[in-house]
């Protein structure tokens, strides 16, 4: 920022407010893309152009499906998390950490998810994610589902 710009920010409250509101609106606009992926077509072409300029080959990316590949988490009936996830059953990291703490807090050795609760939750996730970017084309957005 130049000295003049700093002075304007310091002395003109409406400039600071406008700038802050602009940042807020920009950040909030990302939500639209996750709920309505078709709105991201213009941004997608810009991102692909930028990616082509910055990455010399197509191999780099991120792996979505193998995030727990090496985890040793075993559930009811010796079901490994890798096997449970293969049908699209996923959990958020904070929830997993909380669940891992429960047995110690309760003086037990393990926790279990009732199958009926798991089926209801998965159905809810599937209903809510219809049309979301993860369902509508994460592979075309640079995500890799194959392991290296």
Provide keyphrases for this structure.
disordered C terminus; two-stranded parallel ribbon; mainly alpha; 3% strand; single chain; 2 domains; 148 residues
Short description:
The protein is an all-alpha fold and 148 residues long. The chain is built from seven helices and two strands; from the N terminus they run αααβααααβ.
Describe this structure in words.
- It is a single chain.
- Helices cover 57% and strands 3% of the residues.
- It has two domains: 1-34; 36-144, no CATH class.
- It is built from seven helices and two strands.
Q: What is the molecular shape?
A: elongated
Unreliable sequence segments: 141-148
What characterizes the major β-sheet?
A: 2 strands, parallel
Our measurement of the CA-to-CA distance between the termini, rounded to an integer number of angstroms, reads: 42 Å
Average pLDDT rating:
75
The structural domain count equals: 2
Number of helices: 7
Strand content: under 5%
Strand order of the largest sheet: 1-2
């Amino acid at each position: 920022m130049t000295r003049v710009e700093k002075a304007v920010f310091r002395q003109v409250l409406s400039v600071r407010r406008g700038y802050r509101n602009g940042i807020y609106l920009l950040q909030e606009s990302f939500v639209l893309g996750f709920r309505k992926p078709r709105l991201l077509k213009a941004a997608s072409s810009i991102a692909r152009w930028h990616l082509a300029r910055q990455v010399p080959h197509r191999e780099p990316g991120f792996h979505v499906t193998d995030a727990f590949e090496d985890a040793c988490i075993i559930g009811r009936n010796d079901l490994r998390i890798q096997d449970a996830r293969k049908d699209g059953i996923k959990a958020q990291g904070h929830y997993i950490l909380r669940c891992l703490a429960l047995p110690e807090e309760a003086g037990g050795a393990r926790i279990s998810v009732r199958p009926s609760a798991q089926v209801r939750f998965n159905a809810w996730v599937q209903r809510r994610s219809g049309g979301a970017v993860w369902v509508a084309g994460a592979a075309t957005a640079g995500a890799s589902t194959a392991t290296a």
